[in-house]
Amino acid sequence: MKLAIKKLEPWQNPNEEPYISIENISKNFGNFPAVVDFNLEIYKGEFFSLLGGSGCGKSTLLRMLAGFEQPTSGKIYIDGMDMTNIPPYERPVNMMFQSYALFPHMTVEQNVAFGLKQENMAKSEIKDRVYDLLDLVELKAFAKRKPNQLSGGQRQRTALARSLAKQPKVLLLDEPLAALDKKLRDKTQFELVNIQEEVGVTFIMVTHDQEEAMTMSTRVGVMEQGRIRQVGAPREVYEYPNSRFSAEFIGSINLFDGLVVEEERDHALVRDEENDCTLYISHSASVPLGSQATVAIRPEKVTITKTPPKTDRNFTKGEVEEIAYLGDVSIYHVRLKSGKLVMATVPNLQRGAALPIEWEEEVYLKWNSNSGIILTA
Amino acid sequence: MKQQYLSKTTWRKWINVQKLSIKIPYAWMLLFLIGPLIALVSISFSEPAYALPPYEAVLKYVEGTYLSLKFHISNYIFIFKDSMYATVFLRSVYIAFLSTAACLIIGFPFAYAIFRAPPFWRNMLILLVVLPFYTSFLVRVYAWSSILSANGPINSMLMSLGFISQPLQLLYNDAAVVLGIMYCYLPFMVMPIFVALQKMDRTMLEAAYDLGCKPLRGFFTITIPLAKKGIIAGSILVLVPAIGEFVIPELLGGSRTVMIGRTIWTEFFANRDWPLAAALAISMFLLVIVPINYVQRANDYNEDEVSNKNQEADHA
Predict the structure, then answer these.
(1) For labelling alongside B277, which of A53, A205, B75, B254 has CA 20 to 30 A away?
(2) C-alpha–C-alpha distance, residues A196 and A177, integer Å
(3) Where are the beta strands (DSSP E) in A164-217?
């Protein structure tokens, strides 16, 4: 059954009209450019995440979508309508605030009903809708409580119900899980995705937590200094980062700088003199021979052994400096002769097994030819 | 050895600075609030006498024989029998209510303007609110009596503009008293409201707009309810002293504006009936403090405090 509602990928379909178009949006606060010439298209029913560190402009962008900030230049279209100069109370968009911004003087029920009351909807209709929503977020029993009588998770769900009450075209979520503890956050991630599938509203989420963005989103937009660096499905962004920045921002990564010494249609060879390491990559570098390139390899794609490999490429040598035991995996920090640090993630498959490799041991790190990815930006 | 240990802890207990810092205000309260209050209560149950002080103490030592303890409730009976006191009290409450309402009507927009002003102007406006306190209270009230007088600036301006031919009687009436109280107590209204507004999370309003609420409606459904605590605190701060206000009605009020403060003064100094005056003061105190304490308690129920009781529910 899950197959039938398998995530569509509308951005792959050239005939699909974008639902939200952000066109050349810039926003300056005084002299500080918060968002710079920003373009993005989001499709109906998507769960899109804007991912970036603090001050990257992701929240400003979200606030411009909500109408709390006016862009310095550019246009925002939602469902074909120009929203740029529409005040927040007239936009078909609702927001879930990081602080939840629940009205402390109103009960859960009144909070959820607040948006509907603004539309002069019939009382009985409001009540029905409110209770449907409270049912959805499992808060029916708490309808008469005030926000201060709720737990963090309950308040988060109240905020969600309130922002969904008006059946917005787009729901904006500003770090929706940031105020929850780790365990609850993991649980809520899936709940939020399920609710999104159930109501079919387009979600745009802002987060600094890459794990959160990866688990929940159909697509992720990586932001830096007011610009978008990469847009793509989580797997795509993780496996095929287009730049050093997005490679380093999402997950951990080992980077080898070198020169392209061989360049073919199906492979490329990069020579890293500093680390005396030759990297064979099973895709073309698409840069001229002899130019600078960076090869990125994820730590979980690096294997660690004590015996020297039989090839002359895709391996390097170093000394174990640090072992971080995380339970499910251990992360080995290996110092190369050049002083470079390389990380390798090893799953702890057996319980109680003594560590096969100890601190200060001389080890070989190797990887497959399809593990590395050549970054030119 | 044990003895030494004990004495050491006892010594520490006494010089415990943290505890001392709590004890000092309590001692202060006991000395200057509870003490006089007990004295006042005891005077209110005594009998007037031609003596110095002019009453017969409740508890006294009768020469050579015994201690006598006599409570007279006659003062209280007298107050509740004579409708004059009830009338004066109601009149005081009425004037105080009018003044509080006037304070609120002027004070709320004022506080809101300070709240919305850019930081530099905010500090300036707060300074302006507090500035009158740097001059004597009496001088300020006198100033009003000259402003409102028959040949004061208001009347002379109206006359020179030709609106009136005779000076208006602005002074010595209820309106003048209300104006005076409103003017003098305005900061007590403005400051708590301003603090309440400033404590308000501004995303509340954004959330309201986001849910389709227009700014004016947001003001009434979000801003005012969230400033409620400040409004109540400010109103109490104005209402309570206004009921017992003596100087302002004395200087700006007419012969009909007899307030309870004036009555108590008359009983104390003109009639030298200390027990009755004390009984009046205590009666007023109780009549005011009980309902206000109730309001304040309802107000104290903290809405933004998080209860941790339900936190476990998240992981159930």
Answers:
(1) B254
(2) 15
(3) 170-174, 202-207
**Assigned CATH class of B82-300:** mainly alpha
What mean pLDDT value characterizes chain A?
90
| A373-375 β-sheet, strand order | A277-281, A268-272, A254-263, A292-297, A373-375
SS3 assignment, position A138: coil
Enumerate residues 6+ apart whose C-beta is below 8 A from A110. A103
Q: ω before A18 within 30° of 0 (cis)?
A: no
Side-by-side strand order, sheet with A341-347: A303-305, A362-366, A315-325, A329-336, A341-347
CA of A222, closest CA in chain B: separation in Å?
Answer: 26
Quick check: B303 pLDDT over 90?
no
- Angle separating helix axes B174-199 and B83-116, nearest 10 degrees: 40
User: Which of B212, B222, B312 is the closest to A89 by Cβ?
Assistant: B212
pLDDT for A340-363, tens place per residue? 999 999 888 877 665 678 888 899
Other Cβ atoms closer than 10 A to B179: 19
Check the CA dihedral A119-A120-A124-A127 and report its sign. Answer: positive
Rg (CA), chain A: 25
Task: State the complex-level ipTM.
Answer: 0.85
In 3D space, the residue among A11, A40, A19 whose CA is nearest the CA of residue A226 turns out to be A40
Nearest to A148 among B206, B307, B313 (CB): B307
| Residue B273 CA to its chain's centroid (Å) | 26
Residue in chain A closest to B224 (alpha carbons) equals A105
A64: helix, strand or coil = helix
Q: Which residues of chain B have a CB within 8 Å of the CB of A167?
A: none
Helices (H), A137-181: 152-164
Task: Decide if B206 and A101 are in contact by the 8 Å CB cutoff.
Answer: yes
The ranges assigned to domains in chain B are 82-300
- What is the phi/psi pair of residue A364, to 5°? -110, 135
The domains located in chain A, with CATH, are 10-92+168-245 (3.40.50.300), 252-375 (2.40.50.140)
Out of A86-90, B65-69, B266-270, least confident range: B65-69
pTM: 0.80
CA distance A119 to chain B (A): 8
What the block records as the tokens of A218 is 């159909």
Contact A184 B315 (CB under 8 A): yes
CA-closest candidate to residue A118, choices B50, B216, B65: B216
pLDDT in tens, A140-165: 999 999 999 999 999 999 999 999 99
Q: Which of A54, A112, A65, A59 is nearest to A88 (CA)?
A: A65
The distance of B229 to chain A (nearest Cα, Å) reads 11
| pLDDT tens-digit map of B178-232 | 999 999 999 999 999 999 999 988 899 999 999 999 999 999 999 999 999 899 9
B311/A151 CB distance under 8 A = yes
CB-based contact A58:A75 (threshold 8 Å): no
- Partner A contacted by B210 (CB < 8 A): yes
The pairing of strands A315-325 and A362-366 is antiparallel
